[in-house]
Specification:
73% helix, 3 helices, mainly alpha
Amino acid sequence: MVILFSVLFDFDLMLGLDAKDVVLLGLTFLVGTITLGSGKTNVMQGAVHLVLFAAFLFLTLIP
């Protein structure tokens, strides 16, 4: 609904994220897509998710 309103009335739609947060969000979507796309997961893919979560926590607590 918000996207439709933004397009119809020519408003800018902003996520309110810094550049590092946008990169981390994009990486999370990419890794999640790769993990779920194969249908099977393994320990390495789980470790990658944990590293991304640790990076998120680190960057949240220590900007």
